[in-house]
Amino acid sequence: MPWLSSALVVDSCVEVSASARLPLPLAILLGANEVLSTADQQLVSLVIDSERDTERVVRYLRGGFVDGAVVVSAREHDALLEAMQRTTLPTALVGRPPQGVEMPWVGIDNAGAAAAVTQLLVDGGRRRVGIIAVGLDRDSGADRLAGIRAALGPAFDPGLVVERPLYEYAAGRDAMRELLDRAPDVDGVFATSDAVAAGALEALLAAGRRVPEDVALVGFDDSSWARRCRPALTTVRQPARGLGATAARLVLDQLAGIPAGPDGRLLPTEVVTRDSA
After folding, report:
1. 203-225 pLDDT, tens digit each
2. Where do the structural domains in the chain lie, given as residue ranges?
3. Using one digit for the tens of pLDDT, what is the confidence trace for 107-160?
4. How many angstroms separate the CA atoms of 201 and 199, rounded?
5. How is 193-260 classified by DSSP, letter by letter?
6. Which positions fall inside the Transcriptional regulator LacI/GalR-like sensor domain (predicted)?
7. Regarding predicted confidence, which is higher, 172 or 86?
């Protein structure tokens, strides 16, 4: 029997540290590996963190070393996806494809989930809601911001949006400091990931703000950050392992000759209410 392998490519936009017990990409990887292992496929993990990485990974994928690929967190105008569209390698994306890219994909309704957790802030009487918007060159960041805007309606204030490129703790801390400088009267904050929200919480507490009495705070992912924060974070739980598993099945289907169209599959999310909002 020939040796079969599939690649999981993470287009890096997150902080992976020992203090975050199970970052989202790792949970996705474990879900994919569970399905691929059952099919006697060896998972190979490839991380992209620079243009040089992209070029090397493209050469690797084109070199016949793997039978399929799962791509996580692709950017707009992503050179990797542009190159992969010119190959016949069975591929599935975790996350909605950028405009102009047609590939099988699985994801969540980022806009709907963000709107739902933002509504908790609105229903709680928060009128000055700040947003730490991260990864706007990806479907996750752009769609979450769109969902927040929809939920806030006329109360949405572009001046209360602070942008950062990476989903990381330090980004949340520094962005929260900037937001407090801009708007000391902010009374609610949506941070578009739990790691970012944890950093924001540090900055709020250091500034003497009580959470949630003075400022309600919500995150996204329901990662270990959400449970370890004090107060624990209200957030959105997304099925990270399920995303990886579904993407892996999409690749296996293609390997078995089952056609996969460009229509995506959306997995359910859940708002988890804790003490921060």
Report:
1. 999 999 999 999 999 999 998 89
2. 4-107+239-266, 110-237
3. 999 999 999 999 999 999 999 999 999 989 888 999 999 999 999 999 999 999
4. 5
5. SHHHHHHHHHHHHHTT--TTTT-EEE-SB--HHHHHSSSPPBEEE--HHHHHHHHHHHHHHHHTT---
6. 119-276
7. 172
Tell me, yes or no, if the two domains 4-107+239-266 and 110-237 fold the same way. Answer: yes
∠ CA 252-266-242 to the nearest 5 degrees? 55
Q: Which residue has the tokens 């708002």?
A: 271
CATH architecture classification, 4-107+239-266: 3-Layer(aba) Sandwich (3.40)
DSSP E strand boundaries for the chain: 4-11, 41-48, 68-72, 91-94, 105-108, 129-134, 161-164, 188-191, 216-218, 235-237, 265-267, 270-272
